[in-house]
Amino acid sequence: MRVIIVGCGRVGARTATELDQRGDHVTVIDTDLRAFTRLPATFGGVTIRGSGTDEDTVRQAGAEMADLLMALTEGDNRNAMAAQLGKHRFRIPRVIAKINDPLRAEAYRTLGLETMCRTVLLADALVKAAAEGAAATGGWVEPPTAEPRSVRDILSAPRPETPAGPTESSEA
Amino acid sequence: MYVVVIGGGNVGYYLTRELLAAGHEVVMIEKNPDRARQIADELGKIVIPNDGCEGRYQAEAGMGRADVVAAVTGDDEDNLVACQVAKMRFNVPRAIARVNNPKNESLFRELAIDDTVSPTRAILAAIEHEIPVHGLLHLADLEGGEVQVLEAQLDERSAVVGKELREIPLPEGSTVAVIVRDNRALAARPETRLRAGDALLTITSAEQEAEIRRLLIGE
Less Cβ around it within 10 Å: N or C end of chain B? Predict the structure, then answer.
């Protein structure tokens, strides 16, 4: 599957990484080159600096051949526009927009966009965690790996040995 | 008319002032509270200090009875969403969006925005009228930029000079309407032979502009 991801923030980078590992052809777009440092060194996809709401950039990212576009920036409006650009200008078969405001997500669903609302997802998981425990959420809420230690235990624990060697000077 | 203006930057401010002066009823929605207060101090209690893309603030602004919404912030995506919310939720008859990236004009029209205004394109057009860098001038945009009226200025380097108009393989949907020669307008006929110095008034679609440039100017 050929996937274009708009926005290489935490969500975008993670989604891109996972899809890349699954063997999909992933192209990530972000306006900030530094955002691509969130991708692991093993990332085998393509990165493009530019705006996901700019027609030329999205075309350069292979929109004409893409099977799926996901708009995952921090801005709801930017995501809604990038998704509509993909859907209507490039006829990408599936587009998904991350929309944080549940009211607006509703509005965009009526326009034929698949939307994913962080607020709703997280709230659902939290309600489920409250009622049935973290395990019931399928990993959306992660159970702890250890019992909590008291602050006194932490403070009284023996300190790990620090290697005593000559300190290096960085001055030339 | 009842007009809702979204965005209180310079464009929004002067637009609102002009509309009020012309006797229209205007409400502005401006996200930045300081800016909203500043404008309200001058123009009166017509400013809602909130996000104009949100349905509830549009409702507060009385979008349900608005004749026109004008989204004039500096961000194309905000203008698009504000107009779409106004059209979808409040059935506003006419939505006008300011567009900074001229390429967005046709996309916005496709997405149900009634009118777009691109200052970038306007300035570009003004510059190109003064300095014909490419030999191809934008004279007018119709249908929100989908259809363009261009002027191709031929010089001796153009490959079409000396040819008859019918020999030029213009793309389907493009046509040369008028030829301006020696300050006179000639109807473009198939047998008209082109000369250096001719200006060809050409009507074309936006996506065929590059093809027209290649054929007539030869870059």
Answer: C
What's the 3-state SS for B132-156? CCCCEEEEEEEHHHCEEEEEEECCC
At A170 the pLDDT is 47
CATH topology of domain A2-98: Rossmann fold (3.40.50)
Cβ neighbours around A111 below 10 Å, total: 17
Task: Give the Å distances, CA to CA, from B9 to B75, B100, B187.
Answer: 11, 14, 46
**Encoding tokens for residue B68?**
């026109």
Structure-token match 């809702």, residue found: B4
Provide the pLDDT for residue B121. Answer: 84
The pTM (predicted TM-score) of the whole model is 0.71
Mean pLDDT of B140-154: 83
Q: Would you tell me which residues 36-65 of chain A have a C-beta closer than 8 angstroms to some C-beta of chain B?
A: 53-56
DSSP state at residue B7? -
Q: For tokens 């060697």, name the residue.
A: A165
pLDDT of residue A98: 94
Which domains does chain B carry? 2-117 (3.40.50.720), 122-217 (3.30.70.1450)
> Cα(B186)–Cα(B196) distance, rounded to whole angstroms?
15
pLDDT of residue A112: 76
Interface predicted TM-score (ipTM): 0.74
User: What is the distance between the alpha carbons of residues A158 and B23, in angstroms, rounded to a whole number?
Assistant: 79
